[in-house]
Structure formats: C-alpha cells, structure tokens
Design goal:
Largest sheet: 5 strands, antiparallel
CATH topology of the largest domain: Thrombin, subunit H
Distance between the termini: 23 Å
Strand content: 35-45%
Oligomer: single chain
Number of helices: 2
Strand order of the largest sheet: 1-2-3-4-5
CATH class of the largest domain: Mainly Beta
Number of strands: 27
CATH architecture of the largest domain: Beta Barrel
Structural class: mainly beta
Shape: globular
Radius of gyration: 23 Å
Helix content: under 10%
Number of domains: 3
Length: 390
C-alpha cells in the first residue's frame, strides 16, 4: 500500500505520546504565565514544524539551530530566535520548544516562548533523563530522540522517546545489535516552572475526538479500518472497492452531530494512486505518472475530505510529499536533494515550499533544518553480510 509510511508515522507519534517511564528534574521558578489561554487551530506539520493557520504563520527549525516564524501568505520572516531550536507545540500565544543541549548531557531543555511577543522568553525548564539517554535534536549513528508536548488541566505534559541501535560493519551477534528503546514523561507547571516526573500509569490519556454512535460502532467492529477525520461538520474516511467496474476509492461521510450518512463520493479509480492525507486532515493527495513531460514527472490531484471535490491539480517532480492547503496555496515539504548540475553535485536543502493552486507557480520557499544522520558509516568488516544501510 502506497500510504504505509503515513500509517507508520501516525502510529509512532501515538506511541510517543502514550508511553512514559522514568524522568525527573527540578528547576528554579520562572515568571508566571497564563495557562488558561485558549488553544488555536494549530497543528504539527512535520517534526519541528508547527503551523498556526489563524495568524497565519509557521514556526520551524532553521539551519542555524534556531527557530524562524514565517508568514504563510507572503513567505516573509516574522521573527527569529536562537533561544530554542525545535518547535513542539503551540498553545494560544505560547510556543513550546526544545532547546539544544551539550553533547550527551542528560537533560531535556524545554523553552516556552511568547509567539505574540516575537519569540520573547517566558519560561525554561529542564527534565532529567536516565543515564545513557541524550536529547539530541539531530539523529546520530543509530540513535534518535523525539519529544512531544500537550496541555492537560493547565499544565504542560512533555513525553519523550529515545531509540538506539548499534550499527557496525562487523558481523555481530543479533543480541549485540538489538535496539534499545526508552520512554519517559513529565508535567511542567506553567506558573512556577516546576517539573514533576510522571510514571507510566500517571500519564493523562490522550483526548479522543467524539464520533457519532453509529460511526463509532463501525470503527469498533472493524468495518471502518482506516482513520476517521473530522472535517468541518463531517466525519470522513476512505474505503476501497473492487467490482466489475474496476477498483475505486470511495469517500464515506457522516454528519458529525446526528450521525446521518451523507452520500458516498467515488474519488478515483486505477488512474490515480493514494498518497497522503494532509497534515491537518482536511485534504487527500493522489498522483499519477505523467510520461509525456520530461521535466515534471507527476501530476498531483488534491481532494477535499469534506466534500470529495477536486481542489487542485499541480505538477511536481516527486510522486508525493507531506502537505497541507492554506487558502489558495499548497504548502509542502521538499527533502534535501543532491543533483548533478554541469558535472558537479549541487545540494538543495530541505525546504518548505508554497505553490499557487491556480497557476502552479512557486510563491516562496524556506529552508528547514535537516536532522537526519548522513554519515560517516562504519566500514564493512571481514565476514559481514552486505554493507551498512544508508
């Protein structure tokens, strides 16, 4: 299935929020913040990229190890700060972010910035980590650290996940290269900055969006296997069907208030391939190969998950990308790319790009910090099988 990466990513994010183990710490009281501010319609586009459609703005990791706030409409810089490095969560005017720590220092530094005050510092806290765990924003050779944040009863809940696996060119025993995974969570008082360790059974449950009773029963019975999105006043999901008319992808919908079924919409058949839902769960990306164009190889077709209507068609050299729609603009991520230009390799950094949905022209782009590990790798030893995976 073409969308498998999306489901794996979603599951990993859920595990990150749900799991908790040993984490503790202490901090000096900081200036009081109002913990009762209303949340916005903000959402996490990608790890380290938070979108606020109400301002409209996007907060993202920049290559200089700081955070940029960029206007979604114009692509102009609103402000930048070096006080933190990775946005985690936006709550009202409070931007929760992870700060850099010295190499292998056993703490997770959380910084809360005032987004309305253009990145003014509001609160700092440190969460102590178990021995052998370090809160690196960049992946290492076989190591990764992720953190997430949310609000529960006026306090900030921070969950983290650390994974480590020995990578070697030698042919080691399987038990020597078994992955190590450690999780943890903490509660931060937004008035005092006090950090409290949370055990696994103390972690508040994730809020679950309510579904009409009949739709909830379909999910519980397994009739609806995929996710159900809330889009406007509609609960929507997609299903595949095959009959004498061929294979079709169908949008199924219900009224969120009454549970009344709405007419099904046949989105597409075999001519398109399902790629991803948008980061805010409002649209669906499909694509197909365009063989007649030697430069732009794929046609992207975007559907509304509320109505089933086609929102736009855009051409792109990639079959798919993480995306969302903002007004008349398509916002998507292009990964770091290396291309051969005039006999020399040129590197195009990871970027956030905005495309006009009417003309297809690029309106603006902005670099994002690339946190993937890209070498060096251990050499292949005698008797080893294959080469280290890159």
């Amino acid at each position: 299935m073409q969308s498998i990466n999306f489901w794996l990513w979603t599951a990993a994010a859920a595990v990150l929020l749900l799991l908790a183990a040993s984490a503790n710490g202490d901090t000096t009281p900081q200036p009081t913040l109002d913990a009762k501010q209303k949340t916005t319609h903000s959402f996490e586009f990608r790890p380290g990229v938070i979108v606020d459609p109400d301002r409209p703005a996007v907060y993202l990791m920049n290559p200089q190890r700081g955070i940029d706030a960029v206007d979604l409409s114009s692509g102009k810089l609103i402000c930048t700060t070096a006080k933190a490095a990775k946005p985690l969560f936006l709550y009202g005017d409070l931007l929760v972010a992870q700060a850099e720590t010295s190499d292998r220092r056993g703490v997770l530094r959380i910084v809360i910035l005032d987004a309305k005050d253009k990145g003014g510092l509001g609160l700092e806290a440190e969460i102590a980590l178990p021995e052998g765990v370090w809160a690196s924003i960049d992946d290492g050779l076989g190591t990764s650290f992720w953190a997430s944040a949310r609000i529960h009863e006026g306090a900030l809940i921070v969950s983290w996940f650390f994974a480590e696996q020995l990578l070697s060119g030698a042919n080691l025993r399987p038990d020597a290269t078994a992955p190590r995974q450690i999780t943890g969570a903490a509660r931060i008082d937004l008035k005092t900055g006090r950090v409290e360790r949370l055990k696994a059974d103390e972690l508040p449950p994730l809020p679950i969006a309510a579904l009409p009773g009949n739709v909830a029963q379909l999910v519980a019975s397994g009739v609806l296997a995929g996710p159900v999105w809330h889009v406007g006043g509609v609960a929507a999901t997609i299903q595949r069907a095959s009959d004498t008319g061929g294979q079709r992808t169908i949008l199924r919908r219900w009224n969120l208030d009454t549970g009344e079924p709405l007419p099904d919409v046949v989105l597409f058949g075999r001519e398109l391939t399902f790629r991803y839902p948008s980061a805010n769960g409002r649209h669906l990306l499909t694509s197909k190969l365009v063989e007649t164009d030697p430069h732009v190889k794929y046609l992207w077709v975007i559907f509304s998950l509320e109505t089933g209507g086609r929102v736009a068609e855009v051409r792109n050299h990639s079959p798919a990308a993480w995306f969302f729609v903002s007004g008349s603009r398509l916002i998507y991520e292009s990964p770091l790319q290396r291309r051969l230009v005039d006999g020399a390799w040129a590197e195009e950094p990871r970027k956030l790009r905005a495309i006009d949905l009417v003309s297809g022209a690029e309106l603006w782009n902005w670099p994002i910090r690339d946190t993937a590990y890209r070498g060096p790798y251990p050499p292949v030893g005698p008797g080893s099988r294959g080469t280290p995976r890159r």
